[in-house]
């Protein structure tokens, strides 16, 4: 079939397998151009490995460190006339390239929050590796069924204590609008922490530690975000911020535990990027659009794979790691948070109108990046070609471990 983007609001309902493969190949090419990571990990588990920073981590681990990887994600296969999800096609392409290059790669599609998934992965590690020396936690989901209680929690993005009103953008019309978010209830705060906090990350480390599967010197890293003063009220000081605080507190607990095996648990605060989930959040896309223009003009912009390469080579696997902030976090968002960058973004936000919007924004870049998430608009891809949407992930065609 010939696949074209079908966008409804902030959702693209199609994905292009060849475009997603090109996106993966571009990241592989970047890693190869930068050179190998010295003393990198050899057995890497990536929890949330099919898109964004998780996918970049798996690509970097394999093609930068020469590591074997296991990846966990929850993606949709193609069905009848519907394409698979972008994350599915990303994982197809990654595994194909990894296996062609002679690297071990195994994927698990399902609920990464569940004890059943932990059991499957632990069985595979025992059978194929024996030990794991790096665990990347990049799981992002709108809801979570608690593995112990069965309760379903849903995350929300709301301010605390009072309503919040500010300028936002309607991405279906590209028009500025004023949006007001109601204050969160305590139940919404608790549920958001359940979904996006550190409990599940700790459950994974608990399970691996209990089975003796963490190697001496094992590292685990979870990805977080802080953001600028502009979005503080609704993001870092809102429900999501409460969850991020819990995630970061969990990192400190895990770090103390892993010191017993000369290991490390850390938080990497990464820069803002265009994602499907962030496109649904009021205010955040407008900030991205303004930020992108300033960072590109100052030549300090980084994409996913550049961020992760820098994380591995300047913080995780180097004799002279960069300094953490006062809360012990690795600040890979340092270029986003440069004083002159934030000053210009803030000034532009304050004087923004529909009439001068194009002068201060990178709206075209935003839409290009959004479509690229689903494999569209990439150079070198024939989008008029007939392609088979039913793509198989190689390791998932193998007999499963029982």
Task: Tell me what the structure shows.
It is a single chain. The protein is built from 13 helices and 13 strands. Strands 5-4-3-6-11-12-13 form a seven-stranded parallel sheet, with helices on both faces. Helix content is 40%, strand content 16%. Helix 7 (239-258) links the parallel strand 11 and strand 12 (264-269). With 402 residues, the chain is α/β, with parallel strands linked by helices. The protein is globular and about 60 Å long. The chain has a domain at 7-152 and 190-273 and 301-333 and 381-397: Rossmann fold (3-Layer(aba) Sandwich). The protein has helices at residues 17-34, 52-65, 86-100, 115-128, 186-196, 199-210, 239-258, 276-279, 284-297, 304-316, 339-350, 357-360, 363-372, and strands at 7-8, 11-12, 43-47, 68-73, 105-109, 132-137, 143-145, 152-154, 164-170, 175-181, 214-224, 264-269, 330-331.
Give a quick rundown of the structure.
With 402 residues, the protein is α/β, with parallel strands linked by helices.
């Amino acid at each position: 079939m010939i696949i074209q983007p079908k966008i409804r609001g902030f959702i693209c309902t199609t994905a292009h397998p060849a475009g997603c493969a090109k996106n993966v190949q571009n990241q592989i090419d970047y890693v190869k151009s930068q050179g190998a990571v010295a003393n990198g990990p050899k057995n890497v588990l990536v929890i949330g490995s099919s898109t964004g920073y998780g996918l970049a981590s798996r690509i970097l681990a394999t093609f930068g460190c020469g590591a074997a990887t296991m990846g966990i994600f929850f993606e949709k296969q193609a069905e009848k006339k519907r394409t698979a999800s972008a994350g599915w096609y990303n994982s197809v392409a990654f595994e194909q390239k990894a296996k062609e290059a002679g690297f071990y790669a195994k994927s698990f599609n399902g609920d990464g929050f569940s004890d059943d998934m932990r059991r499957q992965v632990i069985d595979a590690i025992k059978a194929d590796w024996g030990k794991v020396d790096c665990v990347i936690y990049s799981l992002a989901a709108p809801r979570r069924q608690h593995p112990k209680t069965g309760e379903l929690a849903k995350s929300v993005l709301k301010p605390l204590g009072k309503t919040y009103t500010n300028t936002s953008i309607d991405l279906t019309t590209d028009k500025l609008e004023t949006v007001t978010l109601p204050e969160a209830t305590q139940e919404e705060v608790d549920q958001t922490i359940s979904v996006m906090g550190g409990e599940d990350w700790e459950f994974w480390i608990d399970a691996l530690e209990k089975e003796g599967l963490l190697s001496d010197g094992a590292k685990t890293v979870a990805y977080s975000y802080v953001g600028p003063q502009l979005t503080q009220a609704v993001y870092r000081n809102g429900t999501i911020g409460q969850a991020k605080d819990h995630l970061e507190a969990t990192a400190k607990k895990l770090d103390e535990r892993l010191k017993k095996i000369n290991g490390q648990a850390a938080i990497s605060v990464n820069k803002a990027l265009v994602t499907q989930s962030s496109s649904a959040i009021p205010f955040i896309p407008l900030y991205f659009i303004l930020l992108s223009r300033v960072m590109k003009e100052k030549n300090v912009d980084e994409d996913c794979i550049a961020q992760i390469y820098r994380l591995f080579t300047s913080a995780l696997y180097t004799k002279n790691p960069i300094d953490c902030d006062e809360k012990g976090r690795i600040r890979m968002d340092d270029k986003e948070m440069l004083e002159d960058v934030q000053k210009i973004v803030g000034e532009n936000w304050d004087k923004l109108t529909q009439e001068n919007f194009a002068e201060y924004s990178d709206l075209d870049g935003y839409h290009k990046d959004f479509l690229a998430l689903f494999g569209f608009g990439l150079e070198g891809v024939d989008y008029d070609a007939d392609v088979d949407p039913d793509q198989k992930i190689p390791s998932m065609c193998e007999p499963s471990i029982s």
